[in-house]
Design brief:
- The chain has 109 residues and is mostly helical.
- 89% of the residues lie in helices and 0% in strands.
- The chain contains three helices and no strands.
- Helix 1 packs antiparallel against helix 2.
- The radius of gyration is 29 Å and the shape is rod-shaped.
- 0% of the residues are buried.
């Protein structure tokens, strides 16, 4: 897959992961509000705490995936840069080799 397409797909994946993080953040905010109401009413909040723990775990996994995707983007860019530099160097070497090909004596006349 060409580097630009791979990077574009990785960025799209990161965007989707960030959207999931926003959804988790919204749910966590709702849980905190609900937990406050339950505490004020003297109700049990263990289900709230359990869900918050699950959300924290899911958020941690999303952050790990985002970091991994960012690392893949950097690696893809570096590989593309190395490949491009190698290609330029090879082309320059071929041009120099062609230019330095010894001329035959007869060609000078």
């Amino acid at each position: 897959m060409p580097p630009l397409i791979a990077i574009t797909e990785l960025k799209a994946n990161i965007q989707a992961l960030n959207e999931h993080r926003l959804a988790i953040e919204a749910e966590a905010s709702n849980i905190v509000s609900s937990m406050r109401q339950s505490l004020a009413a003297g109700a049990d909040t263990s289900a709230h705490r359990t869900r918050m723990t699950e959300l924290k775990r899911m958020d941690y996994e999303l952050v790990s995936s985002i970091n991994s995707a960012n690392e893949q983007i950097h690696a893809t860019r570096a590989a593309a840069t190395r490949a491009e530099a190698e290609s330029i160097a090879n082309a320059a070497h071929a041009n120099i080799a062609t230019a330095l090909t010894p001329l035959e004596i007869g060609d000078l006349a």
